[in-house]
Amino acid sequence: MRSRFGRLFSLILVAVFLIGVISGCGGGDTNKITVGSKNFTENILLGEIMAQLIENKTDLKVERKLNLGGTLVAWEALKKGDLDLYPDYTGTGLMAILKKEVMYDADEVYNLVQKEYNEQFRVKWLKPFGFNNTYATAVTRELAEKYNLVKTSDLKPYAKDLVFCAEQEFFNRDDGYDGFIKTYDLQFKDKRAVETALKYQAVAEGKVQVIDAFSTDGELVTYDMVILEDDKNFFPPYHCAPIVRMDTLEKYPELEEVLNLLAGQISDTEMQQLNYQVKEQKKDAAEVATKFLQDKGLI
Questions:
Q1: What are phi and psi of 136, to 5 degrees?
Q2: Among 9, 17, 39, 108, which lies 20 to 30 A Cα-Cα from 235?
Q3: How far is CA 55 from CA 27, 38, 290, in A?
């Protein structure tokens, strides 16, 4: 009797185990998506913001693959299906992925990348977050107030006494230094190429007065710098938005509506502040993301 009961009990345990294995193999990825990001503060933070919003507004489980690498690493992961979505920039899509010429109209760039990504890759650009992380011209607040600098064109009478500084890449790009000074008819006293991390330090030490920046750099807050308006529209648009695999949207259509809650919610200045909190003040990205979503009334 005991032997028969023991065998029966063993069979039940085996059955339970097999059911668990089958369930694990067949349904482990059900209702789970993977959110990724590139390997810099802003993109990591945006990935976390999207992940938390999805977790709060849907029944989906979110796996995070943040801080993956550069553009091509994240893009290849999305194409392969290792990622379902990540945040990217329209100018990056236009030039780095589609290999198109520089374009300057923000709507035209967005519409073109949307069309080409849909047709070539079955990837959809959702609505942009609102900010434009493009190149910009920055000066210290002291200099801006001294010469009443508001627009980049305002530099023209004073450029001969100022030193311009940028990373080497800016001096090599089609949308970089040569086109910039030609468009604005500027002649600086001197120009210097330095490592990206040293630009702001050079300004703080008074060695240079004008730099190229990205319009959402957290360092702009740290060093109290002013972005000059690109009044001749020289720099191309880099509006950021979620890009999502179409098969993911077909499986989970609620994602589009949820992520579009972020549309227009982040200005250039707000993105500067968010980057500043994480990169300069060393706050935890997840905590900054949570507070942002709460302040916007999104969670």
A1: -150, 160
A2: 39
A3: 19, 20, 12
